[in-house]
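Try this one yourself first.
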């Protein structure tokens, strides 16, 4: 999130980053489908991306090195 941005703009950028994480995970680690994610979210109440990522392994979704690299690629290090 860029310096000097207002709260609404920062929130928008945060949502865009989560969207980008999910799209890249689905395309590159989950076989191009989101059916396992939908099943996961249908059986677990998830309120943060961290919770979702941690639960991915319960749905046989990758949480290893390649999936974590996707997160690093989309994360801002301050």
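Now uncover the answer:
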């Amino acid at each position: 999130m860029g310096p000097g941005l207002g709260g609404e703009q920062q929130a928008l950028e945060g949502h865009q980053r989560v969207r980008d994480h999910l799209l890249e995970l689905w395309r590159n680690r989950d076989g191009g489908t989101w059916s396992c994610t939908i099943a996961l979210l249908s059986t677990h109440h998830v309120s943060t991306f961290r919770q979702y990522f941690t639960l991915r392994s319960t749905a046989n979704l990758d949480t290893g090195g390649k999936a974590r690299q996707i997160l690093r690629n989309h994360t801002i290090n301050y």
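Discussion: Residues 26 and 35 are 9 Å apart (CA to CA). The chain has four helices and no strands.
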